Amino acid sequence: MKVTRRDLLIGSAGAVAGLALTPVPWKLLNDVSIWTQNFPWIPQPAYGPVETKYSACTLCESGCGIRVRMAEKFPVGVAGVRSHPLTKGALCPLAFAAHQLNWHPRRLREVRHAGRAASWAEAQAAFQKACGEGPIAIVDGRPGRAVSSVFEAFTRKHNGSYQAVLSAESQALAPYADWSGVPVASLGYDLENARTIVSFGAPVLDGWGTPGRFTQLWSERAAGAADPQLRLIQIEPSLSRSAARAWRWVRVREGIEAQLAAGLARVLLEERLVTQPGPMPRLSLAEAAAQTGLAPEAIRDLSHTMMENRPVVVIAADGNPAIAALNVLLGAVATPGGIVRKRGEVQPHVPDDPVPESIRAMLVDSTVPWEFAAQANAEVFRFAAWDGGGDRAGWLLPAPGFLEELTDVPTSPTSALPTYAVAQNLVALPIGVQSAAQFLVKIDPTMPAVEKVIHARCGEIFRSRQGSVYGEHPIAATKVDSAQHLEEQLRKGAVWMGEPPSPGKFRCELKEWPMENRVAPATSWATAWVPPVFPALATKLYQESNLREPPAERRG
Amino acid sequence: MSARYGFVIDLDRCTGCGACMMACAAENNVPPAPARATPRTGLTPMLVRKVSNGIEGTARREAFIPIACMHCGNETPCVGVCPQQAVEVDKATGIVMQMPQRCLGCRYCMTACPYHARYFNWWDPAWPVGMEKSLNPGVAVRMRGVVEKCNLCPARLHSAKEKAAAAGKKEIDPADYLPACAEACPTGAILFGNLADKNDPVFSAAHSSDAFRLLARLGTEPKVYYQSKQAWVKALAERDSDRATEAQHA
What we know:
The complex is a heterodimer. Chain A is α/β, with parallel strands linked by helices.
């Protein structure tokens, strides 16, 4: 049989048509689809049982309750805890990708000295030598933790000073502490009972204080209402996130907070809008108006509006004493809905050690903001989980990252109720990484271990028999069997919360009106605490959308 | 009984924090952006847009609109144009499912979508070394060259179904299925539920006088509703998304 060209073409066409009727091409297409999804360079998620753990977030001092999904011993997801009494399930945007931070390209995994690789033994020897040669200082970014006790004990024994770097929220409470003698850590805002909140540039709806606490309060009592139950007045030069959502936005010139506070105080006193007398500001209303860029009538109107819906409390973005004085004048100190003193004796103690003029060495904890500038002549031992860039320290010491360290979480600075939580080390500590406390204990083995301090604090809380423990189900502290049981609950992610404050426990007296003006630090991020690095997924916020400004490039 | 899952988003409660975007990306293994990615080429299945009333000065007002796939219930535009049948409306849930395994990357669906809620995967998904250990085990990573969008966290739905099946139930417990964005919202602005269930809070919220849908005139019956008491915010609902973007950049 002769096969012609025509036969060949017919046969080929028939074969193609016939093949289409068989499952072969479809199977091939399916296989190719699956194959393309399994290219070796496409990352594959881990397989294995997923378990859920509860803990407290340690990214900042708010200590929000977190639910962590773990697979193959690694965290694969972070979410809020709805039963948490303070945060009620809310977290800041960064926390949702915090579990990725431990693999950040700028993660520190080796000791560096003057930009070159070094060893822990060398760092230890250098610090020991410095301790013997002159005064040292230890700088703590979150005072009141168990590790803070280790720092304090070390500095006392080794002729050093303990220094705390306070957050913007804590700094805003510092004037009340100066005037009343009550420690900053014992003060807080009773926002739940306030009906008007006047924010002088504080990002109250953008991460201020504990994310979730005020935003939820605002959401329930103010959002969208023309005459809300809770009035938020935002005083700010630009239309920030908080100003955009506020009941009223008062646009002022930048850096005139003290002048506006003085103008408001003058109206409150002259028109007898406040019951208690106070020192009259030196600035006249006309002068205040000229400096703030507002009309005198606008300042007068704002004063009246503040007093319409009481209790009213004023929140400053920093430690501006003039704004704090306004709260004293308004009677918003030591009263419900204002600045209150937390109840209980378990408050963290912040020592006020004098700073020596000359320091031989300075140990900076990883909780201290990266931008912190150490004393120029001191040899700096900087603990950090991530390298924020620039030449910040002589010694750069790799510290534990997210959920890699057992630590306790004392009360958030703005909270009116004392809280205590424990963040368990859910992830194994990488080789070559250690915390500042471990470093100090190696130098001086008589120092207390963090575990022991946490254990002692749980004992104190248990013996106080106050408050409740919020775990799977909230229970009164009086119903907890033992201190050990309490500690177990806290290590599993529960949080202890003390009793509500009782009013009138302290007094603030003003002899003269403070006129010091301090410009609020400009921040373009959700929290005043700026992390040395951002989670990789933060690109969603500032690069793949226009939602937020990109983080500023670091110097150096 | 078939469900119609959807959102009711209260725009008066949205502070534009971006927690929903971050939670969505982490839950669904959406990769971080390469250095050259822009808002036009990024992957944001949940995107919060900032809009304003266009007035300058103290009368200026701004709002934030979280935009995800609208899961259109009528003449779903992306379904009809897909040559690969890579988009299907699940009759049991009403979810418009994007199947990257079938997607050719032709991007007809992106053109057809009136809400610009679909994103093309321009780059190989990549995380810094070691970070793949932090990926959600319940979600496969999508390859370069396919279109992505919000599928209402299918891994969570599957998990809820598995839980119901293990308990011998046919229907899932509504409390077991909550997309990551709704769970993450710190103000409770994103309400999720079954729009076909009259007892579900989203049903009454979707039928309130303040509720509206974006580009309702197109008749695509989106299953994402919005709420606002602000007239200027409601007026934006009928503007096309390009003009909304103009407002965003204003």
